[in-house]
Design a protein that fits this description.
This protein is mainly alpha-helical. The protein has nine helices and nine strands. Belongs to the Lgt family.
């Protein structure tokens, strides 16, 4: 029965979601997100430089991407929980209450909003640095899933976004006073640990994307398309069993529709990019010089000296430089 006592194998929730250091309050939710951003940056840096980009160009692209991702993530959450923030009596402008639209540290950011905002920011960064947008997206894809996996632990610390009641042995324990628990449920009810489901799914996805990323056929934005399909497929399932309130459209939660849209966009990108064959000539757009795993792009064309192995797209910048010098 759903009301059975918590089993020995059940997952406990943390007793606190923050630490206080003098006047500072540090939320574990924020630390999880920050750790995810750092991990994604390092992995993307490694993948971009292997493709031939300048070292740490990921910072120039990533800064506007992260900034816009936070703005988009919060805006998406607020707009899809409109009544919570703007109904009568809510002080959405007051930063000292939990229902203010500014209080991102209390939770309430949405990955689909982050993807929209982050894509805009990354495009701006790519225009500034000359990096191909598709190249950056492909380099980012595994790191993005890794960041999402790490960020989900923040939901665990906050005891939020859990799933429906369950009697499974890995059910999640939630404090009885949690406002997200539906009225009438016994105090010892366990819930689906949707944060853990997504951590495991995203972690497996990182491995799959890293494996796919070694194939030339997954360049030209196709690896990011695979990310959209992978994440969207998992999110449809986890979102469907979440217990937190959500806007319902035609019988489905808003984020289920967003996940379906992500899958459709991923499939569309794969279809659209089928016109590109072979390897990308350079991680840089025409008109921007930069070492690539395949040679050097010229200032005004994508023509290049091909120095790569047929089945590998990841040749070190040193090898590319040596081969190009020999070709000259």
């Amino acid at each position: 029965m759903l009301s059975s006592p918590a089993l020995p194998a059940s997952i406990p929730s943390p007793s606190t979601s923050y630490i206080e250091l003098g006047p500072l309050t540090i939320h574990f939710y924020a630390l999880c997100i920050l750790a995810g951003i750092i991990a994604a940056t390092l992995l993307t840096h490694y993948r971009l430089t292997r493709r031939g980009a300048e070292p740490w160009v990921v910072i120039d692209v990533g800064f506007p991407a992260v900034l816009m991702a936070f703005i988009g993530a919060r805006a998406y959450h607020v707009l899809t929980h409109f009544d919570f923030y703007f109904s009568a009596g809510r002080e959405w402008w007051n930063p000292f209450v939990t229902d203010a639209i500014w209080n991102i540290w209390d939770g309430g950011i949405a990955i689909f909003g982050a993807l929209i905002g982050g894509a805009i920011g990354a495009y701006i960064g790519c225009r500034f640095t000359g990096i191909r947008f598709a190249t950056f997206a492909d380099a980012l894809a595994p790191g993005l899933l890794l960041a999402q996996a790490m960020g989900r632990f923040g939901n665990w610390f906050n005891q939020e976004l859990f799933g429906l009641p369950t009697d499974l042995p890995w059910g999640l324990e939630i404090d009885p006073g949690n406002h997200a628990i539906p009225a009438g449920l016994p105090a010892d009810t366990l819930f689906h640990p949707t944060f853990l489901y997504e951590v495991l799914w995203n972690g497996l996805g990182v491995i799959v994307l890293l494996w796919l990323g070694r194939r030339t056929a997954m360049q030209w934005g196709r690896l990011f398309a695979a990310y959209l399909i992978w994440y969207g497929a998992g999110r449809v399932v986890w979102e469907s069993i979440r217990i937190d309130p959500s806007e319902i459209i035609l019988g489905l939660r808003t984020n289920v529709w967003a996940a379906i849209l992500a899958i459709v966009i991923g499939l569309f990108v794969l279809f659209l990019q089928r016109r590109h064959t072979g390897q990308e000539p350079s991680p840089y757009r025409p008109g921007h010089n930069g070492w690539s795993g395949n040679g050097i792009a010229s200032d005004d064309t994508d023509e290049y000296v091909d120095t790569s192995e047929p089945e590998s797209s990841e040749v070190s910048p040193t090898a590319a430089a040596t081969s190009t010098a020999a070709a000259k």
